[in-house]
Amino acid sequence: MSDKYENPTSDDYMGVVMGIIMSGGNAKGLAFQAIQQAKAGDFEAAEQSLTDSSNELRSAHDVQTDLLTRLAQGEKIGWNLYMVHAQDHLMNAITFKDLAVEVVGQEKRLQALEKK
């Protein structure tokens, strides 16, 4: 078993951290884009942006799952403020995306009412 994630300053470790941060940032940006698209009445684009956001979150979640599996198998995983920041960034993106789904739905409902 390789402990390639034991050293929190290694390139492998920092690659994982940056991957989580980037996926979280992309997911949040896509969720925000979905809200803007919904406000403009482009619900098809908004739904696609939400799907793309979910895919980014899945990518980051897969990295998390891999780390947890390695930890459960006895591999040493180092933790530092970078990883804490990455996890925080990801959780905020998940929350934002969940709220964006609700906002897009409400916007769809409001625009349908305005047309009546």
Automatic annotation (TrEMBL):
Q: Which domain of life is it from?
A: Bacteria
Give the SUPFAM superfamilies listed for this entry: Enzyme IIa from lactose specific PTS, IIa-lac
Residues with Phosphohistidine modification: H85
Q: Look up keyword 4Fe-4S and say if it applies.
A: no
Write the record's keywords in alphabetical order, separated by commas.
Phosphotransferase system, Sugar transport, Transferase, Transport
InterPro entries xref list:
PTS_IIA_lac/cel, PTS_IIA_lac/cel_sf
Q: Does the keyword Transport apply?
A: yes
What is the name of the protein in this document?
A: PTS lactose/cellobiose transporter subunit IIA
From which organism does this entry originate?
Answer: Lactococcus nasutitermitis
- Upper lineage: Bacteria, Bacillati, Bacillota, Bacilli, Lactobacillales
